[in-house]
Amino acid sequence: MKKRLLMFAVLAVLVVGGTGCSKFAEVKEMFAEAEEEGDSEKEETSEAPAFEGEEGEVQDACSAFFEAYTALDGEKAGEMIRYGQTLEFSELQGALSEDIQVVISSIQVDGGDAEVQAQITNIDMEAVIEGLPEDISSKEEATEAMIKAIKDKDAPTATFEVTLLFTKTEETWLVEITPELSDALLGGYQSFLNKLLEEMIS
Fold it and tell me: Residue 184 pLDDT > 50, yes or no?
């Protein structure tokens, strides 16, 4: 069972793509080690408090980033990232981004840096992968099955507690794509893959 789920997760590397996702070669190498050692509605901030001053500027930057991200505007979202990378959305990542919801609970500004405590609700990729049919054996089948599960009106969701990091420039505040944020944007995919690898190795 664990090997089957891990293989589905590895297939997901090929079809998720996008922000912060592991490269297939890296995951393939981790999988080989595990085999050897282990038995060879769009962004929402309506519920968030209203912020003023610099905190309000950070809130606006945060909202603008998620608006661009959920609209699959990779160029605009990329302009709001600290290291200025254009985002490319795979078909699966596009489906994942449609219903991301974000609620900001607090903002702390310290000079040119800011931390935003937020809850990001997204599709639960662990539940999606665990629910895939037993007979999937290709990238194409995995893509079709995952997108179908993600778009289901009863698709499982999960809420991720995330600390968003922002840095001030002359014009605006830019967000840093940390592993924590990337994992939430991908519905917990990366943490699920890491958990499977740890279970395989132990």
Answer: yes
- Cβ-contact 143, 15 below 8 angstroms: yes
Q: What is the distance, to the nearest Å, from the Cα of residue 100 to the centroid of all Cα atoms in its chain?
A: 10
Residues in contact with 165: Cβ distance below 8 Å, sequence separation at least 6, in sequence order: 113, 114, 115, 116, 175, 176, 178
- Find the distance separating the first CA and the last CA of the chain, reported in whole Å: 15
Listed residue (125, 181, 194) closest to 157, CA to CA: 125
pLDDT one-digit tens code per residue, 50-103:
788 999 999 999 999 999 999 999 999 999 998 877 788 888 788 888 889 999
Give me the count of residues in the chain: 202
Cα-flanking dihedrals φ and ψ of residue 14, to 5°?
A: -75, -25
**Cα distance between residue 118 and residue 7, in whole Å:** 32
pTM above 0.85, yes or no: no
The DSSP secondary-structure symbol of 24 reads H
Give the type of residue at 80. Answer: M
Return the structure tokens found at 118. 């937020």
